[in-house]
Amino acid sequence: MGKGDLAMNYLILVRHGQSRWNLENRFTGWVDVPLSEKGIREAMDCAEELEDFRIDVAFTSKLSRAQETLFLILAKQEKTGIFLHESEKRDRWSYHPSRADGSEIPIYSSDALNERFYGNLQGQNKQKAKETYGEEQVFIWRRSYDVQPPGGESLKDTYERTIPYFKESIIPQLEDGKNVIIAAHGNSLRSVIKYIENISDEEIPKLELATGKPLYYQFENGSFVKEEKE
Q: Which of 17, 114, 164, 208 would bridge 43 by S-S if both were Cys, CB 3.0 to 4.6 A apart?
């Protein structure tokens, strides 16, 4: 029996598969880089794992590597994923004659779920950045909670744009008894995990998320409980 058949519902978090710039060890941020060949395989493996899991609603960022990962996951689902594009009025939708029905999986995308914006570091090789700025400085930019790289966001900044969207748009879907998947990025997902697990500012930058590996959280009575893979 798939997890989607159980009485309680679930939040599934998936960091996108390896991107071409992950492969090249470059800071990516908001640069819209596609998946690598390995990243496609990772997403397909994730799709296999989630094939028997009933996904009701999907959320993703505006960046193609997260969307590609989600597309591959949803390709193994019985229902068809449908992007719902917001019009100028929040209660209206474009391109679809009605809101997604029971035979479809609504997909919502938002830049609130985008990767952390790395500013002047975007596109730079991480090793070369260490040679330019110093290894200690690059470590501080990457692994502190509230220090911004030049022209970019800290993890705290990412948290402050991701969590309001999570509370306003995603939690209500869970409260409605739906199984929700978020296909996003290392730092936007760190933000979600920090919030639902109440992880400290000091500890959250240390959290490592593997590409293409789903994390399961049971949602019941307004609380999240992480479920380890069987």
A: 17
